[in-house]
Amino acid sequence: MEKIDTVVVGAGQAGVAMSEHLTGHGIPHVVLERDRIAERWRTGRWDSLVANGPAWHDRFPNMEFDCDGDAFADKESVAAYFEAYAKRFDAPIRTGVEVKSVTPGDGGFLLETSDGRIEANNVVAATGPFQKPAIPPVIPADAAPLQMHSNAYRNPAQLPDGAVLVVGGGSSGVQIAEELMKAGRRVYISIGPHDRPPRRYRQRDNVWWLGVLGKWAANTPGPGAEHVTIAVSGAEGGKTIDFRRLAQQGMTLLGMTAGYDEGKVTFADDLRTNLIAGDRNYLSVLDEADAYIAKHGLDLPPEPEARYIPEDPDCVTNPVLELDLEEAGIGTILWATGYQFDFGWIRADTFDDRGRPLHERGVSREPGLYFVGLPWQSHRGSSFIWGVWHDAKFIADQIAIQNGYRAYEGQAAIRMPQAV
Ligand SMILES: Cc1cc2nc3c(=O)[nH]c(=O)nc-3n(C[C@H](O)[C@H](O)[C@H](O)COP(=O)(O)OP(=O)(O)OC[C@H]3O[C@@H](n4cnc5c(N)ncnc54)[C@H](O)[C@@H]3O)c2cc1C
Fold first, then answer.
1. What is the mean pLDDT of the chain?
2. Ligand 1 site, residue 229, Cβ cutoff 6 A
3. Which residue among 28, 115, 188, 375 is the one 20 to 30 A from 92 at the CA level?
């Protein structure tokens, strides 16, 4: 049976970053990837997706994107970036190998893979922050000609004729909804609590403001904000998400999807509340940015027009609380409702009753088992391209430290008899 010090599972950005840092420590390792490097960027997203941060920021520190730094790289370029990055240090990535199970044993782990068994001292799960599509059980499967999760959406032509009900107003939902509307579809979008930071304000991108205002570094979502999604996009060169503007262009905004009864979907009467909370978040970023500029005496021109909030459109003042799917001609219900974990293949006692990893900054309760790339693993940036690199460094350091202890025990065992 093959034996190796460390196995990293998954070769997305998290796995590539892990491999770089393990290589830096000289730790023998292999990265097992069931598909190809950065497969989720290649085929697990819709065709027109671009990064939601500019290229100067959404990258690893040691390599720039091959495009204008202020541009938003398309998904193919992001995948190509990680492939090229892995080549730079000859990352030991084996593609087409799926890890079926990881079982802790005496002082190590047994991995069953599609290519045989491996024994390892350490295992790092780098299988992504967004693993299994989550669809709330609200609407029966046969209620519309097609129901799909955003992870299966590719482009408007893929959907049957008719209107589309998009459930979810986060980054995925709002971008897909706008693309469908521009392709000539009638679009309804069900919106819950959300933040919608300005794309740019006073000549600086949102990622810059998150950085200087210390928000990337936050280690937990603000109190009560755990279920607040973020609507942000790099599409069309990057622009602030403004739901009222989308309504002016023909999209129908709805509150949270609440239930279903005999062909009719019902919505909570919370649309206006959710929009106002989104505005409050938007304006609070402008306030904090203004205060930062004043405090640091920066020469960044004022932008008072950014504070303009359009009037409420009719669908906000007279909200639709019930939608007859047939009457509205809904051909597709598209669930942009996020993801859940899928760690069933790890047979270790380090998960809560909902299958979420129990860990401290990615160090699990099972010695030798680590996670990297989890949302909020150590900070807001953890599941983003730039942030995962730093978390991977921390995890590689922990593995090196533990390997150091292991090595010392060996030396002590040899020296002990001499002392006696
Ligand atoms: C629509 C969308 C847009 C996003 N846009 C951005 C953005 O613009 N900027 C940004 O910074 N972040 C963005 N993110 C967040 C994040 O950067 C991506 O989700 C990214 O793909 C996460 O990288 P990862 O390496 O942690 O996981 P993944 O990319 O999901 O990689 C995990 C890998 O593990 C493999 N794998 C899983 N299970 C096994 C197994 N059992 N055996 C072997 N291999 C396995 C998978 O095949 C996959 O290749 C976006 C996320 C989504 C959903």
1. 95
2. no
3. 375
